[in-house]
Structure formats: C-alpha cells, structure tokens
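Exercise 3.2. Students should predict the tertiary structure of the chain below and write it as structure tokens, then compare their answer with the key that follows.

Predict this chain's 3D structure.
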Amino acid sequence: MENQRQLSSSDEIDLIEFIILLWKKKVIIIATTFICVVIVAIYAFTAKEQWTSKAEVIAPNAVSLNNYLTIRREYARILGSDFDVNSLSNSLFSKFNQLLYSLDERENFLSQTEVYKLESVGKDKEQQRVILNKLVRENITITKPDEKKDSKALWGGVQVSFSAETPALAQDTLKAFIKQISQESLDYNFKSFLITYNEKLTDLRFELNQIKQNVDIQRNVQLENLHRALDTAKRADIKDYSKISGEVENNLLNIIRADTSIPLSESPLSDNPYLFILGEKYISAQISAIKQNDIIYPPKYYQIQEQITKLEALAQKFKEGKLETNAYTYLSSPDYPVVKDKPKRLLIVVAGMLIGLILSIIYVLVTSAFISRKKEIN
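Answer key:
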C-alpha cells in the first residue's frame, strides 16, 4: 500500500514537472506551432481547388427522341412494319453508355475544353500529355447505382461526374461532355439506320425494275403473237371475225371476255393458235390499243412505286432538317457544386496546428532529456 502511494505521488510529481517544463518552453512550442500553421495555411490557400459537378441520366423517352422518333416511325409506317420505341431508346442509350466509358472519346472531348487549355498553358508536349491523361482517367467518373442499395438503379441509369477548379467550369464541362457523347451515339445510330434505309430503297427499286421488265417482255411477246396471228389472218383472207361452231368458238369467246380482266402476263391472247380467227380488223385493233395505251402493271408494282416515292420524300426531311434528339434523359441535370472537394482549409489548418504542437512537445522533451543526461554525466 505504501509503495502504491509512493508511485502515485511520483506520477503526480512527474506530471507537474512535465507541465512546468512545457510552460517554461512555451515560446518554443508556440513558435513551432505557429510556423507549422503558417506553412499548411499557405498550402491550403494556394493549392488548386477541386469542385465536382454530378448528373444522373437514364434511357431517352419519347420527348428526348424528338424528331428522330418521328422519322423512324414514318419509315416503319411506309414499309408496313411494326415499330418499337423502347428498342430505339435502348439502342441509343446502350451506345451512349459504351461511349461514356471510352477513353478515346474522353480524350477527344477534353483536348478541346477550357479545362485542358488552362492547365496546359506554358507546358511542353510531354507535360501536356500527362495533364490530358490525368483529366481523362481521374476527372471524369462514371458510376452505376447499386441495385441493392439505391432505388434509382431500377431506372437503369448512370451517374456521371466531372471535377474542375471552379464550380462553373465543372458544371459547363460536364454538360458539354454529356451532349457530345449523346451526339456521337445519335450519329452512330443514324448511320446504321441510313445503311438499312439505302439497302431497302435499293431492294425496292430492283423489285420495281424486275416487275417492269417482266411486264415489258410479256407485252412484247403478246404483240409478237398478235402480229403472227394478223399475218395468218391475212394469208387466210379473214377480214372479220368468222363464226365457227363448236368448242373452238366458245373457247375463243371466253378468251376475249377474260382478256380485259386479268393481268397481261396471264392473258390467253399472249399465245393462242386460234387468234387469227378473230380476223384482221379485231387483231389490228388489239395491236393498236396495246401500242397506244399505257401499260397496266400489277398492283404490286404501284405499291412499290408508292413506297419508293414516300421513302425519297422521307429522305428529304432528314437531309434538310437537323436531328434534335438526345440519347439520354436527365434524372438530374449537372448540378452547380456548392461544396468543394479539396482543399479542406479548416481541416488542414487544424491538422497543421496539431502537428506543430506535437513536434514542439517532442522537441522540448528530447532536448530536456538530453540536458538532464548531460548534467548527470558531468
């Protein structure tokens, strides 16, 4: 018990001596702490600031797709096919996501921005390359919400952020970046659509030409058969229709009646050995009518012709007008940051003060111990 009291008394004496020692060396402690505070304060108030603007985007809706949606719908309507708005939206947003992560796209964009120009002024090419690489890899951040923790993940969107030296620069640069990536996505999708459009137009023109060629060939064959029948009628000296009995007459009359109601390609007058019986007058009239009148094509021909006309008119719409379409919809647009990321000046100053205080106390204790040791030796 007596030993414990002595130890307790000794600890109290040591603590008092420690406090007295610090008080005696207060000038050194205050001076050291002040110097550390000044040093970190200089850093805190001269270091480059960093502000981060954030935005959240999801797949584009009908409003965002704007006139591009109108064009795609009209294209499907002309061809009589179904059109899925969600498919177009997902296709655009998928490409948008892909380009967001592309380092090449980031580099192409950032190399033209005010952020890069400000940081690269007076730097050589190697330093400029380092600055650009840092901006590409560190200043742009893409984050997908965690489905387990964030309800916004159900929207299937992404969070995009950009850091710069001023709030306005961070916000403006992020807006421009999202806009450019959106335009790149739209251009890619539109080029893919143009390939499909041109292929379809080529196919329709080819099909139209095939129908025309077939009908022209059939017309020429019919005329040739009629000329042959006319020649036979002249040789047989049949001026007008000769009535004949039996099955031949009935068949021929049926052929004549049917010829006005069926396509040229299926006309029995195209090749019939009994045509000459109609006589020179009728055959000549038939030849004259075929030559003078316009060719009547099958319905399919006019349907294709109408489709081609409408597709060509549609092409004028997207050639003359600009596509005002976004490959995204904002869940929250780029914000104007009000709290900077760094430097945290107050924290830095407090940390500097603590470091100065600790260093000065260590210095006082070490020097005091060294002096005491020296006295003991002497």
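Discussion points: Residues 34-201+322-354 form a domain with the Bacterial polysaccharide co-polymerase-like fold (CATH 3.30.1890.10). Confidence is low (pLDDT under 50) at residues 1-7, 244-248, 260-265.
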